[in-house]
TrEMBL record:
Protein keywords: 2Fe-2S, Dioxygenase, Iron, Iron-sulfur, Metal-binding, Oxidoreductase
An MF annotation (GO) of this entry: metal ion binding
Biological source species: Antarcticimicrobium sediminis
Domain Rieske: 27-133
Record bears the keyword Iron-sulfur: yes
Transmembrane segments: none
Protein name: Aromatic ring-hydroxylating dioxygenase subunit alpha
Length: 439
């Protein structure tokens, strides 16, 4: 357990907060490219507690500016998208994508007051289906060479979902390899042939054992954590009865993302992005080392479970997450359906909007959470001192040299598991002929 003060330090992300200032040194997912697909590409964005509006101007370029008009605060989300910018409907003030006011049509002829009006504006960049924003001071950092960024657009599918809780507890479920044996347990194994686009339904690497069975039969993983130049590598070993070891490699990507295997052909890179202190979006990039992703199928699977335009899950607290006691008895550990996102959602929302960590009791399997909190505290201290040299992917190593990260499931000899996962990763990359996945 930690003190209330430390809990606040680690969880709150508005302007001027400790963790918020760290987050503002990194690119943050602000929206999906899909959200701007309609005939009026203007969407509200609430990010790190700040209200913004994202739009695409007639040059096809993106702008992310303050939501309240600097004149008298009207909501720019209702702005007129015209003249290569966004015009406030209240008195017609017009803003370009840099946030500069370029016209005040109701002010006296010849007035140049507009030159002094500039609203909040943040740089944005589109990467494989996600629009990222940089909300910090100075120049934004370079992107690392992760697979999700360097794979071609055809091999990456992006989606998001709303969770009603603080970002940290959402992220912590992603660095907790023990929960998969319980929370995502299926009491029966479905045919892995139906597994496309779903997590934990494939066969465990190079075997005929369904992942569901392996996780169920071996619920006590040995977990070790290694610090890396992007965050942490988390190694979960499950020693099988046949003398082999199942190795699952997942990652924490600083500050609030994870990278995990999904199936033999795909990995997931997932950010847990603070909307404000009590809500977050998960943004996922599903990256294929095999064929192009079937985006239509993956989108349709997920749209069945989510409501637009806010990507709120249809199963949620208000309907008990669809809990069915019969299903809990016979089919799943949770009784909340087969979509593992719903399980995670319940696990992170039910402790309360901001979990009171003065009440927690961490065990040995929570080792990655403990290490992560240490990393975040160190980063907070560095930002306060103005010394960014120690921040992952910002100081020290050139981000262009950071590849991967390796995210996979492998089975190898008990004494040779390290070699097994590295070899399996090399083989997957070598077999990827659609794009260059080698490092
Ligand atoms: S409030 Fe926007 S132009 Fe007046
Ligand atoms: Fe999970």
């Amino acid at each position: 357990m930690i003190s209330k003060q430390l809990n606040d330090t680690l969880t709150l992300t508005g302007p001027g907060t400790d963790a918020g200032e760290v987050m503002r040194r990194y690119w943050q997912p602000a929206a999906l490219t899909d959200e701007l697909a309609g005939k009026r590409p203007v969407v509200p964005v609430r990010l790190l507690g700040e209200d913004l509006v994202l739009f695409r101007d007639s040059d096809g370029e993106l702008g992310l500016i303050g939501r309240g008009c600097p004149h008298r605060g009207a909501d720019m989300c209702y702005g007129r998208l015209e003249d290569n910018g966004l015009r406030c409907p209240f008195h017609g003030w017009h803003f370009d994508r840099t946030g500069q006011c370029v016209e005040q049509p109701g002010e006296p002829e010849g007035s140049r007051m507009y030159e002094k009006i500039k609203t909040t504006a943040y740089p944005v960049i589109e990467k494989n289906g996600i629009i990222f924003a940089y909300m910090g001071p100075g120049e934004p950092p370079a992107f690392p060479n992760f697979d999700c960024f360097r794979a071609p657009e055809t091999h990456v599918f992006a989606f998001k979902g709303l969770w009603d809780c603080n970002w940290l507890q959402a992220m912590e479920v992603g660095i907790d390899p023990a929960h998969a044996s319980f929370l995502h347990r299926f009491l029966q194994d479905e045919d892995p042939a139906d597994s496309y686009g779903k997590q934990f339904r494939d066969k465990a690497a190079d075997t005929d054992i369904p992942m569901t069975k392996l996780l169920r039969d071996y619920p006590r993983p040995d977990i070790t954590v290694e610090e890396t130049d992007y965050g942490m590598r988390i190694i979960a070993l499950r020693h099988l009865d046949n003398g082999k070891t199942h190795v699952r490699i997942t990652n924490q990507i600083f500050p609030e993302a994870i990278s995990i295997p999904m199936s033999r052909e795909m990995i997931i890179t997932q950010w847990h992005v603070p909307i404000d202190d009590e809500h977050c979006y998960w943004y996922s990039m599903f990256t294929s080392f095999d064929k192009p992703v079937n985006k239509e199928l993956m989108r349709a699977q997920r749209l069945k479970e989510h409501r637009l335009p806010d990507y709120a899950p249809i199963r949620n607290k208000s309907n008990g997450y669809g809990f069915d006691p019969d299903e809990q008895m016979h089919e799943t550990y949770t009784g909340m359906g087969l979509d593992i996102n719903v399980h995670d959602q319940w696990a992170v929302e039910s402790p309360g909007a901001i979990f009171d960590r003065t009440k927690e009791h961490l065990g040995k399997t929570d080792v990655a959470l403990i290490k992560y909190r240490r990393m975040l505290r160190a980063a907070i201290a560095s930002v306060k001192e103005g010394n960014l040299e120690n921040l992952p992917m910002i100081g020290g190593v050139d981000p262009a040299t950071i590849f991967g990260p390796i995210s996979n499931d492998t089975i190898g000899d008990k004494d040779n598991w390290q070699d097994a996962f590295e070899t399996s990763d090399r083989e997957r990359r070598a077999a990827c002929t659609d794009w260059d996945a080698t490092t």
